[in-house]
Amino acid sequence: MESKNIVHPFPPLYRADSRTLILGSFPSVKSRENLFFYGHPQNRFWKVVAAVFDEQIPETIDEKKSLILRNNIALWDSIRSCTITGSSDSSVKDVVPNDISFIIDESKIDRVFCNGALSFKMYMKFIYPITGIEAVKLPSTSPANAAYSLDRLILEWKVIKL
What we know:
There is one protein chain. By secondary structure, this protein is α/β, with parallel strands linked by helices. Helices cover about 30% and strands about 20% of the residues. The chain has a single domain (about 5-160), classed as Uracil-DNA Glycosylase, subunit E. The chain has helices spanning about 30-35, 45-50, 60-70, 100-105, 115-130, 150-155, and strands at about 5, 20-25, 75, 80-85, 95, 110-115, 135-140.
């Protein structure tokens, strides 16, 4: 599989009443195909967020959007463009960070959570110096994070609930 330089192919999800921003690193191949966050069926993000808010696991993109927005969450990624092989965070290089200032300006975001180590690393290096909003690193919901069971992820992710 060859490395490609890819620009993030879809916009952030947020509303004016969003208070909590969850940042991934960069969309997986499946997410890029679906043009929406956490598109790989093995990614546990949707199961985790649904469990944290005691809701049904969303199936469609519209259901996923609704779950996020009704809980005052915003979704975006730390990386605007990068060279990546497939979906592998470990292959990411040539990073250009995302500008999140417009999300902060157009919402009530006062909490930032990073889904995994790469997202957190990119946020702290490029974005935190601009926003000044501390971020909390959460364990990745990716299937590559086999060290965390679904139950353990849900327990760790409960901090996103206001």
